[in-house]
Amino acid sequence: MADAAQLNSDPDRLLFAYWVPNVSGGLVISKIPQKTSWDLKSNLRYAQTAERVGFEYALTQIRFTASYGAANQHESVSFSQALLQGTEKLKLIAAILPGPWNPAVAAKQLASIDHYSEGRIAVNIVSGWFKGEFTAIGEWWLDHAERYRRSNEFMRCLRGIWTAGDDEGFTFAGDFYRFRNYRLSPKPVQKPHPPIFQGGNSDDARTNGAEVADWYFMNGNDLEGFRTQILDVKARAAKVGREQHVKFAVNGFVIVRETEEEAMRVLQEIQGKADAEAVEAFKAAVQTAGASTNNKQGMWATSTFNDLVQYNDGFKTKLIGTKEQVAERIVLLKSLGVNLVLTAFLHYEDDIEQFGKEVLPLVRELESKGRGKDVEYEIEQTGRVYQKH
Questions:
Q1: How far is 230 from 336, CA to CA, in rounded Å?
Q2: Confidence (pTM)
Q3: CB 310 within 8 A of CB 28
């Protein structure tokens, strides 16, 4: 097997990340046994394995309270820093929630961590969908549009603080945040600043992705859904002169087995052993949040019970099958405009290494042959698996 440096030598390559299980219960709301642990020692092992086999990013989760099968949660920024200290190349995307965090605190934290890690920290701005999480810690619960408007200001402030000149500092007068000649020192190592990720399906989320984020995260979807989202965000970005700036990332739950039938049996077992009470509670919370958008199409607005067994609709991305099938579907995603695939697994102890050894080299081989560039060709090859049924 080629080493990570060889696998990741093409500047036009698709990037790979994985969800960090710093929250108990794994990445599915199911009672199926999992070889996945949420403690730091286990996660250091997963991170070192991921780095070795070719993953380039890892995303830590942010939760403040127990919910939906996740009884325990380690805080995202400090957990990211701990994983950075135990790795050499892997980049960590720390999830941050406006409200509990002020942009001045986040900018300072992340700038310092960027120095400690020699430029390997990024941030994912999560606008929030769980009302109980906000009210439990004394934070105002804003309606959907206001939460995303606050996130918009938050991202503008992060970028402004990180890039403002030392003479004038950063000045900002918004509805949620205000700064006057704030000078941050030291500035981050990464220039112009650490990457800013954010996601969501709603109009508000798409606008934020187009106007202020560097990366736009998408939940799992069907082919039409992916194409519509990407084209819409690109069009919104073009209106503000950022069409060449925004990149796209997609969530996908990965199950690779010798045969497609074996992989599908694992999926059926995960869904069949779902924690029904927790899934229904999660469904009620997220679909209420989605329905609060103007067009009723926020994240999870159309997700079924089985979809919601994986937190971010990862089953919909169809990375379930043989290694060859999964690799083919990944290059299709690339052809649609996806720049990064965010993976999740059932058994982190084994599956990260398996993906790196079996799937990632196949993707690189297909890319070396020019695959992932002709969208109509890729749809013809494997697009039928994403069609609505």
A1: 8
A2: 0.94
A3: yes
